[in-house]
Design brief:
622 residues; alpha+beta; four-stranded mixed β-sheet; 22 helices; 57% helix; 12% strand
Length: 622
């Protein structure tokens, strides 16, 4: 590293564009001086008129004074405009020792002082921190580029840092930023906005020319340490930025809308970009990445940095979420609540059209659409927009109805066990049936635009959906059976018990059945044919087969379940399960111990109330 101090290094740099920077400074200074002179002139005219004229016009004098005050106030407001710096995640040297070392070596090779600090931001381009010489690295670069590529891509920014810290150039950029900020802050004040707009137009061309001069100079100076094939590195950096932007639009925005934030946007960007390259969907893309991303090598704890950047991205977008979710929980936390809210809105609209409250079933909704109610149902889901033409509203009604009907159908297919949720980087959220993606877009479009549901009903029938069973929708007291199953299987598992709700059945698996329930039924992929048979038995309700294949286990099953609520007790291994049947009967299971004989105790609790709906392993009934 150079033996000279940072100040000496900056003086040694021969930076072009100083003349342009000074012209920007002069324009800004002239504008401020001109505003002060104009304010004094107006006030002076008013004072002169008041003193010298025998009968000065009162209102005219007051208007001159008011104009002078307004000009002075406007100049003061512009001068006091706060220069807000976009928030960043500052990295301490202990958090990224290898990154600091790499940047310092790069600066030494370029003959410039290193940045005073390093930071990461949820943006797509690197930038310099105004005033303190810090360097901000976009998160997408850290999680996509290799260490070598990141070093090359940052070379220009490392050179620009000291150059833009030079006095006249730094002051010129500060004036440009202040004018831009004032335009945004005072946009609603025409008296300020219009003069600022004129000043901004006169400075913009000079600022753009200064940008180009500095960029060309930095490129020439950094050429000594950059790879001859720098164009390929620039392509990777731009591709990472595009992947980041699309990931936010496709996945993160939906999560922010429901009050959560994906925990690892950096890892998500790498997964999404890698999926695009592997699928051959990127023109001109080099071969698939094999080296680790820079983040895994240069950051001490990349997971923690990724979490902080992800939360910052949510904050920058105006979100208020303070809860992070894993990508593996994206469907449960983001997709499912959204589609159930759409299903609830659709059923409510059908209730209004029919003038009654009915079941939240696909068959009922499709029958309403088929009977000619699709226009009224769609109208009930679509808000009026001022100035919208009838054709635009009609198209928006079709799109809205399409989304809500698909929301209800996807809830039904998942609740019935006909299809499973899947999160794909390219397709987004999709449903999978027999290892194939469920695509009902064509019949859905026909049903939403014309009310003809015959093709849609046929497609659902071919998938194996009965469409009659009501689905759980947002606002109901009990959680969706399948969702409750997944939570119960994880949260209330304690050595001998798995509480499982599958479709309309409650299944208590006692003393380990050999099926791994921790991941949830939708994620289960057994490695043996025996496991697949047991899974099929649960899904299709072939209880005899399940019991026969588990002779050494204690299995209880209840039929005709309409609602289940599972609550943890104060003791670590206790729980209470309230069960309600379709005929209105209700029973409460209480588990207090995990010892032997507990399964028989559960049978004794259920038998008096729900005995005719209870099936158990024969050895429990002996």
């Amino acid at each position: 590293m150079s033996r000279h101090g940072p100040a000496a290094e900056v003086k040694e740099l021969s930076v072009p564009g100083v003349g342009l920077a000074r012209s920007v400074l002069w324009l800004g200074a002239l504008a401020m001086v001109g505003a002060v002179v104009l304010a004094l002139a107006l006030a002076g005219l008013g004072l002169a008129a008041w003193v010298l004229l025998p009968e000065p016009p009162f209102y005219g004098v007051m208007m001159l004074f008011a104009a002078g005050v307004a000009v002075a106030w406007s100049a003061f407001r512009v001068a006091r405009t706060r220069l807000a710096e976009a928030p960043v995640v500052v990295l301490l040297a202990a958090e990224a020792p290898e990154l600091y070392r790499m940047v310092a070596e790069l600066a030494d090779g370029l003959g410039v002082p290193p940045p005073s600090k390093l930071a990461v931001a949820p943006g797509t381009r690197p930038r310099l921190l105004a005033g303190d010489g810090g360097l901000v690295i976009p998160a997408c670069w850290l999680w996509w580029l290799t260490v070598w590529e990141l070093r090359q891509a940052l070379a220009v920014e490392v050179v620009l840092g000291p150059a833009m810290a030079q006095g006249d150039i730094a002051d010129a950029y500060r004036i440009v930023r202040r004018i831009d900020a004032a335009q945004v802050e005072h946009y609603g004040h025409p008296f300020i906005r219009r003069p600022l707009g004129a000043l901004q137009s006169s400075i913009a061309s000079r600022a753009a020319a200064l940008d180009q001069i500095l960029a060309d100079w930095a490129n020439r100076r950094s050429a000594a340490v950059t790879d001859p094939d720098f164009a390929a590195i620039r392509w990777q950096a731009d591709f990472a930025a595009d992947a980041w932007s699309v990931l936010l639009d496709r996945f993160a925005v939906q999560a922010w809308a429901v009050g959560v934030s994906p925990r690892a946007l950096g890892e998500g960007t790498r997964g999404f970009a890698g999926a695009l390259v592997s699928a051959g969907l990127v023109n001109g893309a080099p071969e698939q990445r094999r080296d680790s991303p820079a983040a895994s090598t240069l950051l001490f704890d990349p997971t923690s940095v990724d979490e902080r950047v992800s939360m910052l991205a949510n904050t920058n977008a105006g979100g208020e979420s303070r809860r992070l979710v894993e990508w593996s929980d994206y469907i449960a936390e983001v997709v499912d609540p959204g589609r159930r809210r759409r299903a609830s809105a659709l059923v409510s609209s059908v209730d209004r059209v029919e003038g009654r409250t009915g079941p939240a079933s696909v068959s009922r909704v499709l029958a309403c659409l088929e009977a000619g109610g699709f226009a009224a149902v769609a109208a009930g889901l679509t808000d009026n927009v001022a100035g919208e033409t009838p054709q635009d509203r009609s198209e928006r009604m079709v799109v809205t109805l399409h989304d809500h009907v698909w929301g209800l159908i996807s809830c039904a297919l998942v609740d019935e066990g006909v299809a499973t949720d899947h999160l794909d980087w390219i397709l987004g959220h999709c449903l999978v049936h027999s290892e194939r993606v469920v695509d009902l877009s064509a019949p859905l479009q026909v049903a939403s635009s014309s009310g003809n549901t015959s093709a849609l009903c046929l497609a659902l029938s071919e998938l194996g959906s009965d469409t009659v069973r009501p689905v759980w929708i947002a606002g109901q007291e009990e959680a969706a059976p399948r969702m409750r199953w997944a939570m119960a299987a994880v949260k209330y598992r304690w050595k001998l018990y798995d509480i499982v709700v599958c479709q309309d059945r409650l299944l208590l698996l006692v003393a380990a059945t050999g099926i791994d329930l921790k991941g949830g039924l939708d994620r289960l992929s057994g490695n043996t044919a025996n496991q697949h048979r047991r899974l099929t038995a649960i899904l299709r309700g072939r209880v005899d087969e399940l019991v026969a294949s588990s002779p050494n286990n204690e299995v209880l099953l209840l039929r005709d379940i309409v609602g289940v609520r599972v609550r943890a007790g104060r003791l670590f291994a206790t729980w209470t399960c309230t069960i309600r049947l379709t005929d209105g009967r209700q029973a409460v299971l209480r588990n207090v111990s995990g010892g032997r004989g507990s399964a028989r105790s559960l049978v004794n609790q259920l038998a008096p109330v729900l005995g005719d709906r209870l099936l158990a392993n024969p050895r429990l009934q002996r």
